[in-house]
Specification:
Pfam families: CSD (PF00313)
Strand order of the largest sheet: 3-2-1-4-5
CATH architecture: Beta Barrel
Shape: globular
Distance between the termini: 23 Å
GO molecular function: nucleic acid binding
Largest sheet: 5 strands, antiparallel
Structural class: alpha+beta
Number of strands: 5
CATH topology: OB fold (Dihydrolipoamide Acetyltransferase, E2P)
Number of domains: 1
Radius of gyration: 13 Å
Helix content: 10-25%
Protein name: CSD domain-containing protein
Strand content: 35-45%
CATH class: Mainly Beta
Order of helices and strands: HEEEHEE
Length: about 100
């Protein structure tokens, strides 16, 4: 997985400024096949959260608009979560976050 983080860093550095600045709004052929991932909340701010997961070596960004309000109200640093991912130019972006490590 460290290779994935290095590759995303290169994309973020070398791609045109307007290339995939935000996470995709819909799944594509790749993301629709990805499983849910487990992790824990590392940081939570007013509009975004970062989670850590053994599935990726860097923190994973999650915008609060991609998290259900009922889940968002219960998030705190250290909370166990599971989520799906989509990608922006810098790497995976967590979406559809749910509480608990249980992955359906």
């Amino acid at each position: 997985m460290p290779e994935a983080a290095t590759l995303f860093d290169q994309i973020n550095t070398k791609a045109p400024e307007n290339f995939r600045r935000f996470g995709m709004r819909e799944d594509n052929a790749i993301t629709e096949r990805l499983p849910r991932f487990a992790g824990s909340v590392e940081v939570t701010k007013e509009r975004f959260t970062f989670v850590r997961s053994g599935s990726y070596p860097e923190s994973i960004f999650a915008h609060h608009s991609a998290i259900a309000p009922a889940v968002l109200d219960q998030l705190e640093v250290g909370s166990d979560v599971n989520f799906r991912v989509r990608f922006n130019r810098a790497g995976p972006v967590a979406i559809d976050m749910q509480l608990g490590r249980q992955i359906d």
